[in-house]
Prior knowledge:
The protein is α+β, with helices and mostly antiparallel strands. It is 20% helix and 39% strand. The chain has one helix at 70-92, and strands spanning 2-3, 8-11, 14-17, 28-38, 45-56, 61-69, 102-103. A hairpin with a 6-residue loop joins strand 4 (28-38) and strand 5 (45-56). The radius of gyration is 18 Å and the shape is extended.
Amino acid sequence: MTSVNQNEIKKSEIQLRVSPNPPYFADEVVVGSVVKAVSRGRPSKKEAYLRLGFVDMIKKQVFVEVTISLSTGKALAKLLEETVKKLEAELEKETEEKPKVIARSTRELEYIG
């Protein structure tokens, strides 16, 4: 786990910049899947992707749509499950003076080469 430092997250060789804009708030998430046959000069092979749409229900629109590979989707599911468990445990504790911001990457779970 890495704590967010003002405007950047540092983890091993990855350096991500946190946007200076406030984050969007998604009321709902729409998940779709795409399976297609791909033939690149050899017999067809199936590939699968997940499409995530984050919805603002006040405006009734998807404000961002992301397509990820199946392996990234599995890593995301594991990361979300672990993070939710930690947040639930944190909510059961007494309140702290400063809010704690935690950021993690699916890259911590597996390397996709």
